[in-house]
Design a protein that fits this description.
Residues 3-167 form the DJ-1/PfpI domain. The protein is α/β, with parallel strands linked by helices. Helices cover 33% and strands 23% of the residues. It is globular and about 35 Å long.
Length: 172
């Protein structure tokens, strides 16, 4: 059964961490909704390889509209962490136990949203102290699946295993 996935993204997202998972989700017949602060805005990847048009602003959505949340890395998660509406959206996903898919720097946004206590996660090694301080157990591995509620990966090279796991989790 197709799922609806929210993608939290703004300028300077890691291009491949957006384009490859989204392409795989769409190929598997899931729908994707790009969310940022303002609908209609065009945001650009960190390396200038892609741009994304925002479908909905954060004020006009509900977690009830989605089955999962994808957060690509890059500078985008750090920028989004400055907005309490984004943090509340992530907290609501966490509280309802809907799956969050986290790539690379997205762990910083999850840390800021205070949803990592008693969780297991991976991210780039440089973020290990911050996620551990937020209460998570950090593993330096390609992929961590925390009870199908938090799927995390480190870097673009880990995308094949991350995408495979995301699609498997969405089947259940």
């Amino acid at each position: 059964m197709p799922k609806r996935i929210a993608v939290l993204v703004t300028n300077n997202f890691e291009d491949l961490e957006y384009t490859e998972p989204v392409a795989a989700l769409l190929a598997a017949e899931h729908s994707v909704c790009n969310i940022e602060l303002h609908a209609g805005k065009v945001v650009h990847g960190l390396h200038g390889q892609s741009s994304v048009t925002i479908d909905w602003g954060i004020d006009h959505i509900s977690i009830d509209d989605f089955d999962g949340l994808l957060i690509p890395g890059g500078e985008s998660p750090v920028s989004l962490a400055n907005d309490t509406r984004v943090l509340h959206f992530i907290q609501a996903f966490n509280e309802t136990k809907k799956t969050i898919f986290s790539l690379c720097d997205a762990s910083l946004l999850l840390s800021e949203a205070d949803v990592l206590k008693n969780r297991i996660i991976t991210s780039i090694r440089a973020h290990a102290p911050r996620v551990q301080h937020a209460g998570a157990t950090y593993y330096d591995v390609e992929l961590v699946n925390d009870n199908n509620q938090l799927i995390s990966s480190r870097v673009p090279n880990d995308l094949p295993i991350f995408i495979h796991e995301c699609l498997d989790v969405l089947k259940s």
